[in-house]
Amino acid sequence: MSTGVNKIALTRMKDGQGGTVVEIAGGFAVTERLAAMGIHPGKRISKFCSMFFRGPVTICIDNTQVALGRGIADKIFVEPDVVADESCSCR
Amino acid sequence: MKVVLAGNPGAGKSVLFSRLTGSNVTSSQYPGTSIGYTSGLMKVGAEKAEVVDVPGVYSLESGTKASDVATRMIEEGDVIINVINATHLERDLYLTLELLQKKAPLIIALNVWDDARHLGIHIDVARLSENLGVPVIPTVATSGEGIKDLVESIPGAVIPDFRVQSREERWAKIGEIIKEVQNVTHRHHTIGERLADASVKPASGTIIAAIVALSTFLFVRYAGDAIYHYILNPIFQFLWLPVVSRVSLLIGSEGFLHDILIGRLIDGRIDFLESWGLLTTALYVPFALVLPYIITFYFALSLLEDTGYLPRLAVMLDTIMHRFGMHGYAIIPTIVGFGCNVPAIMATRVLESKKERFIAVTLISIAVPCASLQALILGLVGQHGIQYVGIVYATLFTVWIIIGLILNFSIKGFTPELLIEIPPYRTLPWRLTLQKLWLRTRGFIIEAVPIMIIAIPVINILNMLGVIQAVSNFAAPVVSGLLGLPGEAVTAIFVAFFRMDAAMALLAPLGLSAKQLVVSSVFLVMFFPCIATFTIILRELGPLNLVKSVGIMILSAVVVGGFLNLLPI
To answer: Chain B, 389-428: which have a CB under 8 Å from a chain A CB?
Structure first.
């Protein structure tokens, strides 16, 4: 389990980088919406890409791609992997 | 007995529903297709049971309107079938754990089982069932695999005994279950998957989106044109014309009956577009002019829906759509609107905020012409040259942008952030795709064509009685002064309330110039919704917002129409 010391916002991760969600810095509604889609602290994800001009961020989670608007992606904090790990890549 | 199908969006509930009931529902490869709900009948042993397809939700406690509706529907069920997508078991189990506390017999349909196998996801079905304390049946709804087993397990369903309360406890439990039952073998990306990835990445995705949009337009335009020129028009000209010509002679080439059935003769001959009779124009417009584009548009739309491309387009366009007060997902109803505005406005239900829905609905009814109207615009305006059709579309696109900016600026409220799952690409389920195309085409034939067939003789009679002339004279100052159209064009504006395509067809005999046709096309698209769209806006937005929305339409149509009239086109 991660300690959360090196946490960065999802938007600041590099494309293709994997990590573990450590914090959702949002209100109840956002936390609940994200949790329902499987995005919650402790979950392994990887960033796939982000769209031009502060567009949505696409992440890979459990063999699925999920696109999140920038405002939501800014609220998700992730501890990035130190070593590259293929286990959370998409499909 | 009442069986409810519950599951996450995109788990395949609608396809499973049509398998269970043998009935026809449209489903698409993007979440939120089943809005409202569908119910049908199925047989469980000798007994008949009602099956209800609940809209997809990720959780029953998310506090959204959709989840409240789903909860209520689920509570009415005697048996719950929880449809799980086996390719993301972990996420789908969250809803399952909520459902396990509903004190109703539960069965799990582990759907999309074939894809899970191909992806190297191995699930121990027996141990999953043991862990949850309910039957788990692997199914492939698109092919029908496992459906029989699922139906046979319904009578034996029992109320589960499962106690997990808080969210943290649920996630912990799911973690344990996944560890025990699921095993994923790693595999390399195939070419198809690389292509799929390219359509989400910014640079390649933008290029792919442009190619998809252009090829869709070219396909609808030219394939529709080919159906008209090589199949439907020849049928009317070579097979039907001799028949109606004989009828025309038999009833004496003139008189009341002749005017109703055949219409006016143009230079002594029947003209399918201009004669305006029941057996001529009333059949020719829907079946020869409109039908080809209905078929090609809905075929193209089904391809985009069923392959799973549309959510990717929503991601590509999210930033732009935010400028208009909507998130990227609003592009999907907008595209549906190019077929018919009615299902498009219903599809805006997936948008979360009131502001967003109001903007989406208003923009669709102002600037998105339906397929029937477009067919007539292509036919009539296109006679003067394709550049005039270009002016119509460019004007509508500009209107869409400007009104979108204004509405976003002037309406209070918030625009939620995009949060959508991007489904994997699928090879087309041809049988289902063609079935959906047929349902939509049949919908056009049984719902739109009768109105057309009734409207044409009614207009004809009103014309003979001089009613239309009177109305025209009354409204002429506005219509001719402001829009530069002849007084008779008023009839078209009036008829547009019933059928947009009939209204455009009314313009055919007026001998309008290219500019007048451009002005009247744009005006008809923008001015007022047809009655079907009007009713659906009332139902979806309520009377107050309907009045606001229609007010914006009328005002902007007059402004834009008047402006176009001043331009040297």
So the answer is: 416-422, 424
